[in-house]
Design brief:
Arc Repressor Mutant, subunit A, single chain, 331 residues, 4-stranded mixed β-sheet, 12 helices, alpha/beta
């Protein structure tokens, strides 16, 4: 169990990341390759990524270089997910490369004592070896993460809209209360299902919440308590026939979506809307609005984020592009 202790100042300084963190997505996706847990939620990604890695001659690199450093275990080195990655992949990889030698050796030592480090891991103190690591991380990202960037961004943006709505309706504590089944908010402490017993005192620093598409099950935090506090937590996934970008699900031409009511529902979802709000905007019943959201979602135009009994619908990049370039008053 991980217990995160908040003060009033910490509540005021708690925020949600502005988008997917590329290095956290690298590490959490490497975890997905090491287990069948949750495989149904990533089945298409797993299949296509395995083929892409093989075609790019990266399978051996992933198996011998990346996976040993990011085991699906209680610990992997914090320096692999620096806060600079919030500014993008390049900034994050530059920070990995610039990690002080003492920190690299310290964290590699912890990896060796906890999860087991590869014999070559201490050589990461050499810049040349870290350059090879960074090159491998970039190639892995470009091959299996970047192709799904629009999809993961849409999912994270939907989660941000849900958190924002929760803050407006219930305050920051309400937003913390509804983060997921592995997290329980019991003021002033957040209790999180975790592989080790640990207490983290924020001491006024606040907490950065990082929604992650590839995180599954338990949230993840930095092992070093002196680092700026971060909590990476999983997005919700639902069993659906079409989960990934580039697949229009039902296969219906987009033109069949552009009736007056459905276009109104799509416009109303632009700023995030519940079923009830969409129904009122379109002047239809809740069940009719639900039928329209199902069609829009199956064709990749909206994302539906569920929290308990409530849902929030937001646009995907494809839905936003359709509104900007194609949707006029339907005839």
């Amino acid at each position: 169990m991980l217990r995160i202790h908040f003060t009033d100042a910490d509540l005021a300084r708690t925020r949600v990341a502005s988008g997917p963190d590329p290095l956290w997505e690298i590490c959490t996706s490497l975890h997905r390759l090491q287990t069948r847990r949750g495989r149904w939620a990533y089945a298409d990604w797993y299949r296509t990524s395995r083929d892409r890695l093989r075609a790019g001659h990266l399978t051996r690199t992933v198996r011998t270089l990346l996976l040993p450093l990011v085991p699906r275990a209680a610990y992997f080195p914090d320096f692999l997910t620096p806060p600079e990655a919030s500014a993008g992949l390049d900034s994050g990889l530059e920070a990995v490369l610039a990690t002080p030698v003492e920190r690299v050796l310290d964290e590699v030592g912890i990896l060796g004592r906890t999860s087991g480090a590869p014999s070559w891991a201490p050589r990461l103190a050499e810049r040349r070896v870290r350059e090879e690591l960074v090159q491998a991380m970039r190639a892995y990202y470009d091959t299996v993460i970047a192709p799904y960037d629009e999809h993961t961004r849409a999912r994270v943006e939907a989660e941000r809209s849900t958190r924002a709505r929760a803050v407006l309706d219930h305050g920051i504590e309400g937003a913390l209360h509804s983060l997921g089944p592995c997290l329980r908010w019991r003021p002033p402490v957040m209790h999180i299902v975790y592989p080790v017993e640990r207490d983290l005192f924020l001491n006024g620093r606040g907490l950065l919440l990082v929604p992650s598409y590839f995180c599954w099950g338990n949230p993840v935090a930095f092992a070093e308590p002196a680092l700026d506090p971060v909590l990476v937590y999983p997005l919700t996934h639902e069993p659906r026939p079409s989960e990934l970008p580039g697949d229009l699900g039902s296969g219906a031409p987009l033109a069949t979506l552009l009736g007056r009511t459905r276009a109104t529902v799509l416009r109303a979802a632009a700023n995030g809307a519940t079923n009830g709000e969409l129904a009122r905007a379109a002047g239809v019943s809740a069940s009719t609005a639900s039928q329209h959201t199902t069609a829009l979602r199956d064709n990749g135009l909206i994302v539906t984020n569920r929290q308990a009994s409530s849902v929030l619908h937001t646009l995907t990049p494809l839905g936003a592009a359709l509104l900007r370039g194609s949707v006029r008053s339907p005839e």
